[in-house]
Amino acid sequence: MKRHVITPRIDWERKIKEQGFLFYKNESYYTETAAYEFTASEVDQIEAATSDLFDKCIAVADYVIKNDLWDEFFIPREYADLIKWSWNEDMPSFYGRMDLAYNNGDIKLLEFNADTPTSLLEASVIQWYWLMDFDPKTDQFNSIHEKLLAHMQLCRKDLYKPEVLTFCCAPDNVEDLMTTKYLQDIASQAGIATDFIYMDEIGLDDRGEFYKKDGTPLGNIFKLYPYEWMFHEEFGKYLPGSRESTLWIEPAYKALWSNKMLLVYLHRLFPDCKYILPASYSAKEVTSKPGKWVQKPVYSREGANVKIVKDGIIAEQTDGEYGEEGYIIQDYAEIPCFDGNYPIIGSWLIGGVPAGMGIRESSGLITNNTSRFVAHYFS
Amino acid sequence: MDSSQINNGDLIKIVFISIAKKYIFVKPMKKSQNIMLSAVFIAAISSCNNHQDDWTYGAGANGRVHDTAVYSNGRYHYYRFYGSGWYLLHRNNMINMIEDGVATTSEISSPSFVPRTASGGIRTGGVGEGAGHGGAGE
Hints:
Chain A is an alpha+beta fold. Helices cover 27% and strands 26% of the residues of chain A.
């Protein structure tokens, strides 16, 4: 893995905007001044690790469901049956992204963004078109678009009738909107009838069934919106009772994987796995512990409320509003530094199959919503 | 055998073996063969670009904003005064004068003021409030 300083395409800004990357200016989120080069063997390692980790995530979900560990995962009990049902029925899932530390062949899972991953358009489309300009003869670990299209064609048979899939995201956020619209576009190419509304336009009738405001039943919903929030919102309590009339993608079992307690149980069940960092739970913030470790809230997003401690000294810390459910303490994974830039690999799974990767680099050790997306290639 | 002795049959065999070796030893590309974006996404790009100018912070001449909260249907809705009336304040801390209607001060002060109406006995707004001013993706 090497980082190369490169010259941006002359008209890069126009090109990426035409490709729908309208949020590239958010905190200088995108840069073409660098690219990462991998060997084919390194890419094979990342692909294999992603596949192996996903198998182990399946084992954890099985274990949690069989042992009713809802309290340990801070999931309200009224959603247990819904999660079990979505798991046992293998309800359709489109995608997920594992964040991996890659250090000279040593791969560690940092977390699994299983429910509401973004940076999809950048990984799937933007860096692919960049490669076509940069050097189309080189390869890229990125068949995300093709795999999404093929997978959605397969999922079509699982949709409730009438076969319309309504895509939803939170309003007033261009990144979420364009990610959702990209997925809607692929679904449309897959032959699925689609439409779009914002999350706060999802309606509910007196019987607790989901509708659009105009009275059209919502039979199938893709939501770029986390279960951990829906479970605590007014309409959340109608999810279990309406499961036969509204199919939600991602499925409810994703609440188990997008939860940092997954990392604790991965370690408990697979303590010798080379991709899994030792991790434990603490109800309160940890102030002293030997070695190098990272504290993350059970529920947190975009790197908020994360603390990295090295030999008793706080190396880095972010603020935020999370931590109510307690924290997980994970061993620190060394991330290589390239001229002051720390890259994290976002390894994509489409329908449970490794499909590609995108790299986000930060000036610090914590990857958050100010980290930059950087393209990659291999030969 | 020198090159002058190669007949057409041999040449075909050599080319075939060469192609076969290449086929065996060259790994398939891991990248997508082609990426097509269709009408749904292109329309979204166009819509976003066309509507970028619809948004404004709605600051007054002094650079300050004037906001208020309206309690309705079990929750607060925030409004910002701009020009001659009140506009719904969105999560991006901006108002949209094109998409959203304006309310007068007397309208917004009335207990019967309904910020967003749902039709046919279908209620909305019971989900989707968690994103605050940021997105829900990660």
